[in-house]
Design goal:
The chain is of the alpha/beta class and 171 residues long. The chain is 31% helix and 24% strand. It has a 4-stranded antiparallel sheet with strand order 1-2-3-4. A 4-stranded parallel sheet has the order 6-5-7-8, with helices on both faces. Strand 2 and strand 3 form a beta hairpin. The structure holds zinc ion.
Length: 171
């Protein structure tokens, strides 16, 4: 099975075809004077502007994957102003870790959305945030200010969903 793809041969600039068989995927140059074949890794490096080198190839983990989808837990109730400041730091930290965090306690508690001091609204927000467990790849829990009952609930839900839980401290 061979597909034409829109990637140029790294050696000659000719047309590559993707070939898939029991050995896996290779990219075959269709130019008769070239006829080189490449691994998917070599093609990825070429896409990143790195010339493939048969001798020294960069490791596959150097290729940045898409951000990891995570549910972020940190305190909210209590000293709300301080906890919001802390949550902002946590989101910034998570982003620098190559993650795409959802911090529902920062989002849904903004003015005009939900009131965290009303139990029904608080539950609505927490459950909406935790609904992301259906697509999340992990739970990240920031513990400098302790673990609140809301965070504990989130961790239990994550555990039930089979998500890895990563406890962290910023300070
Ligand atoms: Zn070629």
């Amino acid at each position: 099975m061979a597909d034409e793809i829109e990637i140029e041969c790294p050696s000659c600039g000719g047309e590559l075809r993707r070939e898939i068989d029991t050995e896996g995927t290779t990219y075959q140059c269709w130019d008769h004077t070239c006829m080189e074949s490449f691994s998917p890794e070599e093609i990825l490096w070429t896409e990143k502007g790195i010339q493939p080198d048969r001798e020294i190839l960069p490791p596959i983990h150097d290729i940045k994957p898409r951000p990891r989808l995570v549910i972020l837990e940190s305190p909210f109730a209590g000293n709300v102003a301080m906890n919001v400041e802390y949550a902002r730091l946590c989101v910034a930290h998570s982003l620098t870790m190559g993650e795409a965090p959802i911090a529902s306690h920062l989002l849904y508690t903004q003015a005009g959305i939900l009131d965290d001091t009303i139990p029904e609204q608080r539950k609505l927000g927490i459950d909406a945030g935790l609904a992301w467990k259906a697509v999340a790849e992990g739970s990240v829990v920031y513990t400098d200010l302790g673990i609140t009952s809301g965070m504990k609930y989130g961790m239990e839900q994550a555990e039930e969903a089979g998500l890895p839980i990563d406890q962290r401290k910023l300070f």
